[in-house]
């Protein structure tokens, strides 16, 4: 495997691309317009500069990573890719339309992977003529730091495709866990309802945001509190995951918190919009 295309240069796409580029794969990041692509490239430069300033990376490695990355709005650059990892927004119809197009553009051997947080791999794969070469490759935020990759088999994923993505995950320094398709897979089935519960605690006035987060940090030894984590993930992503869990199971325990939905409607998505449960604009 040599050339990898990442669809979406947002929170996850940019970090995933960086992980591959660090291991010297040729990576293309594709997003929908020039402004977003420029902002994504600027975020990459800023992030790498920070690592250099902290002495965690030297200038030569930074230059090497940049040399392995291309930013574009042109999906046709995926024609000769060995792998495409999609990290666009958490919406089935959008993912299906992206993969229907990729299926026509990419060479027949290209593996198509989605970084979806919760959506059925089988449902997305149905937009293509190659469901055997379709798989979930689910990274965790921040993807440059978190060790896990959930490797998710859809109904038609071949063993060959599974093995290729398992081996690639090991090659980039991650720890793969094999997962059979189910809404939310493993981590998000547990983690996102916890964030949802934290929203309800805040909504019902049981404790302040700081109080809830401090309680979970000190009482459960979590590295960050659930509300701060919701802000890191993005409340739009959390809400999309809760809605998938609910719509797939109709189990009321997965009903999204009214506060979470209200905040998404208000555009308070967390770090990416500058405001969520906390204010990041300073
Ligand atoms: C929604 C989904 O589908 C799935 C998901 O992703 S769910 C979310 C999963 N993620 C989590 O649960 C994250 C929980 N939080 C954590 O693990 C930690 O708070 C954290 C890794 C984010 C930060 O860790 P921390 O110890 O508080 O901060 P810090 O000391 O600054 O960072 C630890 C290391 O990560 C690095 N780091 C932190 N954030 C980083 C980033 N965004 N980019 C690059 N490096 C980063 C730091 O440089 C540091 O590296 P060293 O160990 O080499 O010094
Ligand atoms: N935020 C998180 O913590 C995690 C998110 N995910 C999943 O990763 C995916 C991306 O999430 P985020 O990066 O958080 O979202 P984001 O909102 O930060 O970024 C999404 C990006 O996709 C772009 N995009 C939308 N349509 C596109 C298209 N047709 N082609 C190319 N780019 C397109 C948007 O312009 C945006 O830049 C989602 O499926 C999400 O569920 C998975 C793991 C963790």
TrEMBL record:
| Keyword list, A-Z | Oxidoreductase
Looking up InterPro entries in the UniProt record yields: 3-OHacyl-CoA_DH, 3-OHacyl-CoA_DH_NAD-bd, 3HC_DH_C, 6-PGluconate_DH-like_C_sf, 6PGD_dom2, NAD(P)-bd_dom_sf
Q: Which residues form the 3-hydroxyacyl-CoA dehydrogenase NAD binding domain?
A: 3-181
Listed EC numbers? 1.1.1.157
Q: Which Pfam families match?
A: 3HCDH (PF00725), 3HCDH_N (PF02737)
What GO terms are given for molecular function? 3-hydroxybutyryl-CoA dehydrogenase activity
Report the top EC class in one word.
oxidoreductase
Q: Which residues form the 3-hydroxyacyl-CoA dehydrogenase C-terminal domain?
A: 184-280
Pathways per UniProt: Lipid metabolism; butanoate metabolism
PANTHER family in alphabetical order: 3-HYDROXYACYL-COA DEHYDROGENASE FAMILY PROTEIN, 3-HYDROXYBUTYRYL-COA DEHYDROGENASE
Concerning its family, UniProt says: Belongs to the 3-hydroxyacyl-CoA dehydrogenase family.
Task: Please give the name of this protein.
Answer: 3-hydroxybutyryl-CoA dehydrogenase
